[in-house]
Amino acid sequence: MKRLYKSLMFMCLAVVLGLLSSCSGTDYLNAIPKKSTALISVDMQQMASGKSDEDKAGMLKSLLHVEDASKCGIDISEKIFLFESADGNLGLCAKVSDEGDVEDWLTSLAKQHIATEVKERKGFHFSVLKNSWLVGFSDQALLVMGPVVADAQAQLQQQMVKYLKANEDEGITASPMFERLETITSPMAMVAQAQALPEKFVAPFTLGAPKDTDPSQVVIAAEMDVKDGILQVKGETFSFNKEIDEALKKAAQTYRPIKGSYVKSMPADALAGIFMNVKGEQFLPMMQSNRSLQTLLMGINQAIDMDNIIRSVDGDMAIVMPSLTDNNMQMTMAAKLSHAKWLGDVDYWKTSCPAGAKIANWGKNAYFYTDGKTSFYFGVTDDKQFFSGSDQLMAQYAVKPSNHPIDAKIQKLIVGQKLAMVINLAKSSGSDGSGKDDAISTVTGLLTPVFGNLTSVVYTLKVKD
């Protein structure tokens, strides 16, 4: 009898444990699509430790107009996740603590004309926030996705129904990206495919990948932090494809500590800058296989042997983009050289220009190329520094300190790193109407209420020795 009683107790315990595991505290994550291309986890409890509950809820206030976090039905003690779905929509996922409170909160927003009236669809509730963000929720998860125009909202809502009813096998926790995210201990962490980034910022992350690599196969894993208005991203690139992963790891060993020769040359109002220290002969194959950089140099390469110029590099190198759109390519490049023997080839370049293009002198060891659409000024200083730019002034100042350089705090973050990229947030958002820029705006907009105004993003590469 005792044995039977004990067996029944074990069976009851197993049933209870089964029920608990099927309704675990992470079930809300099933609403994040498994094939998301980018995923950011934000632990507000850790990030805002020492701050009031009101400050901790600043992210929700920014996007969702939450006035009282304790009454909106969202559990801010659990991580909030930002993601980009495979079709390019941005999303936020949070755990629901009280479904009724969520509905009451949205109803109050509807009365203020901030959101639409809450409606039920296939067992879930939906509203439209600020005309472009769809809010859907269940008793477990709150999903916010967009931005979308009115005509596309019905289709997105239909997709969100599938996400909200997804099981564990269909959600993000079953993906390799989530598994990698869980290994990052930072309060704010990111795992993202390179294809999820704005196209103009992809180049540094895909350097070293084989030539035909799709950006979806290169993944960035990073810890994130905010200090002094700077979003600091310390990450590494890898791939779930073994061959690509090995190539990326090998390429990372090419970088040497940045000495800081050109950190003062980047103007504070420039869009972006990439900094590194390399030996050109080792770096050239990486550059040749990088589609983003090749596209950037496409017009110039037809007349100027950039490969030979890169081979002569030995030391710090910086590529700065004052602005960059499809219609107006601007950039400067500065680099320390081991030699400038290629200057002897310039006369040949002059005679072999494509029709309608020319190369002419504009100073000592200084030349300019133009084809009527693109202009490129370049040259070498007496102390063997390569300089170039889209116009004469930009080229000359590529190796000189700017009158208004990037903040000294940013300069300090670059020096000593193996690879660094700086993004000016004021110029990155909406500069070309790209939806990808919305991702940067959304993330920084969510962090601003907690950390104050964000001015820059500084990405540095973590290299395992």
From TrEMBL:
Keywords: Signal. The keyword Signal applies. InterPro entries: DUF4836. Residues 1-21 form the signal peptide. It comes from the Bacteria. Pfam families: DUF4836. This is DUF4836 family protein.
